[in-house]
Fold:
Amino acid sequence: MPESFSQVIGSLAHAVSNSLNSIMAATQLATMLIAQNRADDARVSLDRAEQECLRAARLLRDGRSLATFEVPGGMGGVDIAMVLSVCAEVCSDLGDVRVGCEQGLPLVRGQTDALKRLFLEILDNAFQFGSTSVTVTATADGKQDAVLIELADDGSGVRVQSPAIFQSFMTSEPAEHSGLGLAFAARIAAAYGGAVGCNDTRQGARFWVQLPSADGSGPEH
Structure:
C-alpha cells in the first residue's frame, strides 16, 4: 500500500529536521573555527552547511510534489509493450534498455502517461545508482489475470531492503537524492490495482511490477 498523506508529511519532517540539525552543527563549528583564525577550515564547514540548505530545499520541493500527487484517472486498456518501448527510447541517453515482451499480452489497467512515469522512475533509479544496462521483460500471469514486468539491472544491487525502498525519502545517498522516485512508482501501481517490489540478486537489482489486465479482476493483495 502507498503511504498516506500524513505518513509522507511525517517522513518529510524527519528528513528536513535531520538536514537542519546538520546545518546548525556545521555553522556552530564554523563559528568556533573563525574564532581560532582557522578560516580555511571554517569555509569547509560553511560549504557543508550550504549543501545541507540546498538539500532541505530539495526535500521540501519534492516532498510537496509527492504529497499532492494524484494519479490520473482512467482505467482503460493500455498496451504495456508500447509503454515500455517508449520508456526505453526516453532513457537511451542514460544507458542501454533492452525490452522483451511476450506475444499476445493483454492490455493492462491504467492510464498511459502515468504508467510511463512509473517505469521511467524505476529506470532512472537504476541509472542514477550506477547501472549501465537494464533488461526488461513482460509476461502474462494467467493465474493472477495480470501482466508481470521485470526490470533487471547490472548495478551494484540495492542497499535498502524492499519494501522500505518504496517509502518516501528512503535513499542510501541522501546528499544526492530525495528518495522519492520509487515512492511515486509504488503510488501509481497501487492506484491501478497493481503492485511493485524489488529483489536484490547481489549482481544487480531486479524490480518487478504487476499490473492487472484491463478485462479482468486482477491480482489480489
Remarks:
- The radius of gyration is 20 Å.
- The chain has a mean pLDDT of 86.
- The longest helix spans residues 5-35.
